[in-house]
Structures are given as structure tokens and as C-alpha cells.
Amino acid sequence: MTLSDVKMNCNRILLRIDASIRPARARTGKGRAAGNRPPAIRTSRARGAARPSHGRARPCAFVRRRRAGPRRTTASSAQGVALRRTIGHARARANPLGAARDATARVASAPRGVRDGARRALTRFKYRRGCARKVIASLRPTSPRVPTMPNPRRLRLTLTVALAAAALGFAALRSPGWFGAPKPPPRIVVSGNIEAHESVLSFTQVQAPIVYLPFDEGARVTRGTVLARVDDRVYRRQTDIDRANVDVQTAQVEANRSNVAALEHGVLSDRFDLDEKRLDFVRADTLARQSAVSQQSRDLAQTAARQSAAALARDEALLAAARNDVALAVAGVAAAQAKRKLDEATLSYTELAAPFDGVIAVRHAELGQLAGPGVAIFTIAELDHVWLRAYVNEPDVGRIRLGEPADVRTDAYPSAVYRGRISFVSPQAEFTPKTVETHEERVTQVYRVRIDIDNPTHELLPGMPADATIAALASGR
């Protein structure tokens, strides 16, 4: 079969399809002339229909009637039919695939009486069109390929790409992270909330109205900054009284010490006088026994010695009393100084200072409010160093260790990764708290862990939910 034979058979089959469909459309008033668009192309065979035979297509009844005798038509309609057939044959020769699609659409919209015969003819057309493709492919001339010189620009580009690929491959082979990298260890994901060291500040030793309250919530303060002050006039007055009392007691001690010194000098004189009087009595007593002096002189010497002994005893008693007064005065000075220090400490409690660098989280009081023990003034949080309170499932607690790094992410900053380290693992198991969402059931026992995080930018705030990723160990610790 040649190419011309295949084309002739295809044109003949299209002629039969056109002859069998167009008169039926004219009688029923359907088709493009009636303003209706053809339905979708049906390319699959109906279920249960017999396979089309590939022999010669049998003309339908309408074609047989046309062969029996010509139909009476006017000259204009005959010319129109001939013109449409000529155009259809030209389209079939120029574009067989488009002609086949058009024929399929026309067959699908044809009346039931001529549809079966037209479908058989269309099947035969499709088969022969396939044969025509094979013949055309076999008759297409093949020309030997003429070798051409390579393009210098393309050759340079190819060499550049090849050298770049070789350099990348060499770098990849030398880098341990590209090829042959070890498999990353399994990771444990824990959930929890950010916590920080918080302190509730109040006036614990004084009770007075607040006269100084310059900071509000969110203010950053440093350690030692005065946050509030109460009225301290009463406490300052008491401190002044204590200072004056200390001065009086100190002066009394000095006076008593001077008296002690005078009494000590008098006692020393009395002792010398007593010794002298005793010598006079001994000499008078000896002379009286020898009848050198009278008995009266002896008695006078004895009386003088006794008086001197009594004076010495009196002065010693006064010296002891003076020394006791000095001791009491010294104790009074110590007591006055202690009271002064206590009142000064109480005076210092009239100012409320920040115990550490942090941020004022809550301001509980207002200016003029009566402050006292148990009345909260501020809640200050230390945000430079925060931690994540999380929970690890019981099977995973043996795969983590203290000091192990962890990557922390929050819902507020999903693209930021905060570096932390495990600083605490609870030795006791507990049930999952209701405020923490985990992947396991809530009745599963977990262990509380603490992950310390440096927070210099103060982005992490207490109460934020966060997730931490921990590199799990291959074996238990």
C-alpha cells in the first residue's frame, strides 16, 4: 500500500461519513445550521458494543438510497453541497487529525438511524489514518549528518561549567558535612512555659503613706534603684533622739571615769596615811611600855590609825561605786548606740530598692496609699536569665543529661532559636500538668526539667509557651 492509496481511502471514507450525516441533519433541523454546538468528542467504545471489523465498510441505508436515485435538489443547494464536500476533502488532506475530530463530533450528533454506519466508517478512517502515519514515517528520507565544528563560545561555557562542578565536588569531598556525614541523633521535643525569677516588694518594717513612686509597669531598673519611699519624718526624729542619748551617755561615762580617777588617788593617799599612822601607833606603844611616853599619847596614836583605816575603807567603797557607775554608763552608751542603729535601720526601710536588675512586672500601689507589712508595692522580674519549665516522658528521661544543649522556640517568635542548657532534672516522677500540651496521653508519668536560657534582649517573658528540642543520647546516662 502506497501513501496515495492510503490518502484515497481516507478521503473516500470521509465522503461516506459526510454523505450519511449531512442529509439527516437537514431533515431533523439539528447541527451547526440550527444553532446547536456539537457535543463532546467520544473517543471510547460504548460498553457491550461489538468491536468494529477492519474490512470494507458497508454503506448505510441512506447511502444505498442515494445510489438508487438522485435526490431532487435545486441548483444552489447542489452547488453548496459540492462546495462543502470539496472543502471537507481539502481539510482532510491538509489535517487528517482535525478532520477525524470533526467527523467524530458529527457522528455523535447524528440521528440514531445513521449513527451506527457512520461510526463504522469513522473507525475504518481512524485505522487507515494510522496506517498512513506509518507509511509516511517509512517513506520520509533520511539524510546523513554532516559533522560541524564546535562553537568556541559554547565550548568555553561547557569547560567553565565542568570546572565549577569539579571544584564543588572537590570541596564537597573534603567537607565532612556533605558526603558521608553521620546520621543526626534522634531528638526529643518537650513543651512547657517560660519562667523567670520574680520578687514581690513591700515595706516590711515601717507603716506610713507613700510619698515617692516614680516607676510604672514595664520599666527597666537596676539593682539598688529606689522604687518607692514613705513618709520618714517620725523615724528621722527618733533617730535624732537616739543620737543625742548616745552623746549624753558618752559624757556620763567620761564624768564617771574622772570620778574614779580622783577616788583612786584618794585611796592611794589614805593607804599612805594609814601606813604612817600605824607606824606612829607602834612607836607610841613601844615607848609607852618603856614608860618613855604617856599612855595618853599611845591612845591618841591608836585612834589616829583607826581613823585613817576608816577613811581608807570609805574611799575604797566610793571607788568601787564610781567604777560601777562607769560600767553602767558604758552599758548605757552601748544600749543607746544599739537603739540608734536600730532606728537608723528602720529609717532605711522607708525606701524600697530593687534587689536585682529586672523589669517591673506589676505595680500594686499608688501614690499616697498607706504602706506597711504585707502590702505589695511592686512585682519585679529578672529577665536577663530565664528558664523553660518542661516535662520529659519517662522513656526519654534516660536519654538526656545535665548540661546538654537545647534549642528553644516560642510561638511569639517562631523564626528565632534560643540556646539553652539543661540545669535540672527532677528525681521524682509526676503526672503531666494540665497546663502543658504533650503528644502523649496526660496520664503518662513525666519528669520535670529546667532549661536555663540567656535573655539579654528581654524577648522571652514569663508565661510564654515554648518548645525545646534536645539531642537524645544513644544510650542511657
UniProtKB/TrEMBL annotation:
SUPFAM superfamilies named among the record's database cross-references: HlyD-like secretion proteins (SSF111369)
Cellular localisation: Periplasm
Keywords tagged on the record: Coiled coil, Periplasm, Signal
Renumbered residue ranges of the record's region Disordered: 25-57
One Gene Ontology term, aspect cellular component: periplasmic space
Residue intervals of the CusB-like beta-barrel domain: 386-471
Top-rank taxon, per record: Bacteria
Gene3D superfamilies in alphabetical order: 2.40.30.170, 2.40.50.100
Transmembrane segments: none
Stored Pfam families: Beta-barrel_RND_2 (PF25954)
Family: Belongs to the UPF0194 family.
Protein name from the UniProt record: HlyD family secretion protein
